[in-house]
Amino acid sequence: MKIKVLDTTLRDGEQTPGVSLTSMEKLRIASKLDEIGLNYIEAGSPITSEGERKSIKEITSQGLNAEILGFSRPLNGDIDYCLECDVDAVNLVVPTSDLHIFDKLKITKDKLIEMSNSAVDYCKDHGLTVEISAEDASRSNVEFLKTVFLNAIDHGADRVCVCDTVGILTPDSSFELFNSLRDINAPLSCHCHNDFGLAVANTLAALKGGAVEFHSTVNGIGERAGNTSFEECTVSIDRLLPDFSTEIKINEIYNVSKLVARLTGVYIQPNKAIVGENAFAHESGIHSDGIIKNSATYEPMTPELVGRTRRFIIGKHVGTHGLNSRLKELGLDVNDVQLQQICDNVKILADKGKTVTDVDLQAIADNVLEINHLDRIKLIDITVVSGNRVMPTASVKLNIDGEEILNAGVGIGPVDASINAINSLDIFRDIDFIEYHVDAITGGTDALIDVIIKLKKGDRIISARGTEPDIIDASVKAYISGVNRLLGE
Ligand code: MN
Q: pLDDT tens for residues 288-319?
């Protein structure tokens, strides 16, 4: 069964607290949605504002393949604004629960049916396709819901949609509700909200119950806890429901997800299915080892399926297999001893609560690979005193050619004091410090510090690097490693 997908990112999704998109942003999202195969795009609610109508008009003027809908209440004024925006169709939203009819609209049920029928007539008279959405349908009397739908279909409505407006269905009750409506003589659609985290599950159950269309938003954004997540639902249909399919190009799903996250400013939780940062990331040594041997061991789908790539997170659970494969990807060939050393250093860093990024790993590997040279100078200890009322002072203990040497120095700051403490020793006499560059790699005040320096001896210039959680440590290690290389080569 081919399932149609209606995207309401630009309408229900834009009702996410704090989200407001410009015309250009809406147009970019609509074009991308059209490109990846959405059947229907709800572009907005024309009654809202002049700006909203401008956005919708820009979308309808593009000649996209998807049917473009405008949201409308069963009021001629709303429908007129839809017509002004030149939409193909309206999402005609008609509340059907007692709560909404009596407490919100304060009208009778007969009046509601009359409004609904007349709105459908008005739309059809003006050549619009009509999808009638029963708002709060999941808390409505099913017989009354059917009456509203049958009336609307009699008046020419093209599709009918059941809305679980406050997200109270469960997969079982969703299946039952849709199954009780499956004989209705029009395509049945489903609009779920995620208040209990069940929107995708309820949507899948609705399809089993007879729905042939569902509404969703990219990244599941929307009012309160949001709507059915487009990417989760579409990929679940593709992977888990063999009797159903959609026309969505799912290998583009990650791109559209990132686009919407960027433009709405609603970022994606790392553990979100399909599109979350960690959805295809592996850290544990056992998992990484399994993945490398056969990715099916710990992945229910390949990352490429949804336009992503697998990542091995280098952290304290890393094993040598995962680490070696990542090092190879970084172009680093290491022997078993070096690999173990790098692994140990990664774990030391991770135990300090740090995330080990590729840059960190590269720096750690660089350090290890250099440590394997015969170094004439080794740092044993460094102590620095600094503050706004004392002259920064450093004392260092080095092992130079097998002999322990203690020295001290002062400077304009702690790094300068440390380098001066080292510099006054004989062995450093011919070395010029020509460049000093520092980066906080991982962000935050507990970031890993990457220090890159350039040193000169005679006519030779080399760069060296130190990567440590402490800026003084990183600077001194970079300096000593550079000097060792100048002295050793
Ligand atoms: Mn909704």
A: 788 888 888 889 999 999 999 887 777 788 88
Q: How far is the CA of 43 from the centre of ligand 1 (A)?
A: 14
Radius of gyration of the chain (CA): 32
Residue 378, token pair as written in the block: 């080794």
Alpha helices in 352-444 (DSSP H): 358-371, 414-423
- 40: CA distance to ligand 1 center in Å? 15
Q: Residues 119-136: pLDDT tens digits?
A: 999 999 999 999 999 999
What is the residue-wise DSSP string for 180-199? Answer: TTTTSSS-EEEEEB-TTS-H
Examine the pLDDT at 443 and tell me if it is beyond 80. Answer: no
Q: How far is the CA of 165 from the centre of ligand 1 (A)?
A: 6
> From CA 233, how far away is CA 203, in angstroms rounded?
8
Ligand 1 midpoint to CA 168 (Å): 13
Whole-structure pTM value:
0.73
From CA 459, how far away is CA 474, in angstroms rounded? 25
227 CA distance to ligand 1 middle (Å): 7
